[in-house]
Amino acid sequence: MEFRTAGVIGGGAWGTALAQVAGRGGLDVLLQAREPDVVESIRARRINEAFLPGILLDDHVEVTTELADLGGCDVILAVPPAQHMRSTLAAFAPFHRAGVPVVLCSKGIERGSLKLMTEVLAEAVPGAPAAVLSGPSFAGEVARGLPSAVTLACADPALGEALMQTLSSPAFRPYLATDLIGAEVGGAVKNVLAIACGMSEGKGLGRSAHAALITRGFAEMTRLGVALGGRAETVAGLCGLGDLVLTCSSPQSRNMSLGLALGAGQTVEQALAGKRSVAEGYESAPAVRDLAAKMGVDMPISLAVAALLSGETTVDAVIYDLLSRPLKVERH
To answer: In the chain, what are the helix, strand and coil shares in percent, each to the nearest 5?
Structure first.
């Protein structure tokens, strides 16, 4: 398999960074952005001022507002927010050519249906070969060419190998996996857990509490992934544990910064006000809670975050409830 052109759906920070990755790999890239100011900024100055300011884009990257323009591309990277993935892919479906792979690069669980992004793709663009790209990677660092490593999950090993070779560079290293479910669950749940870690930091609970939240949150993530049919070793890799550590350890993370604001006393509305970029943990938390209930999986940290974001409880009550849970044997 050989890919010469890539279409990237979604002109936010991560979509733009991935367009940069594909362009550096020698592909001719067409980045689709629905925001006119993003398109104008890239065309005029080669910079996405709205979402990735200060980073000059590779000469191989062009921009459009039209999904139809991506119909001729050899590979599609889908990077809209997870809750808009279905509508975006449905709008793209008439232009998708049979056999062209779609790499899902957004992390989340669809609210209402409780479906993973691969399930959404299968319904919105039937028959499209699927892959999942997920791992510890901040958009700005990836776009600047700083080293990062991610998981590329694909059920078809030959396709996965071809995509891995296409997207890799000395500074961007995909590691191949075949477990799409594990890769998706890790990416979705870590965003919810990052809100909890940010809340702990904002409340000044210390590094010991932070480490405990990451460790016990990882146990929750693993339980859900395995219950859905994923493998524990996948969740223990870059797409799960690696991404969890990064997202829970830096205010660069939109999800951790949301938690920091909540821990410092802001309301959810205040913490989200004026933000153009989506905090996927805020959007996915209700779906994670409902999916855990459906699968009978114990996820107390994730459930506490969902309750806080929906206004059912307070930061102080969340802390008290988590610390008051019965003592138990440590297990995943």
So the answer is: 55, 15, 35
Q: Residue 75 in contact with residue 6, Cβ under 8 Å?
A: yes
Phi, then psi, of 177 in degrees rounded to 5:
-140, 160
Query: In this structure, is residue 332 part of a structural domain?
Result: no
Which regions in the chain score pLDDT beneath 70? 332
What was the pLDDT predicted at 332? 67
Domain identity same for 116 and 195: no
Active site residues: 190
Could you tell me which residues are beta bridge partners of residue 131? 103
State the pLDDT at residue 331: 74
Q: Answer yes or no: is 329 within a domain.
A: no
The DSSP output letter for 239 is: I
What stretch of H or E contains 5?
A: strand 5-9
In contact, 233 and 176? CB cutoff 8 Å: no
Residue type, 92: F
Query: pLDDT digit string (tens) for 76-123?
Result: 999 999 999 999 999 999 999 999 999 999 999 999 999 999 999 999
CATH number of 14's domain: 3.40.50.720
The reply to whether 137 and 216 lie within a common domain is no
Q: Are residues 297 and 265 in the same domain?
A: yes
Where among 132, 163, 178 does a domain terminate?
178
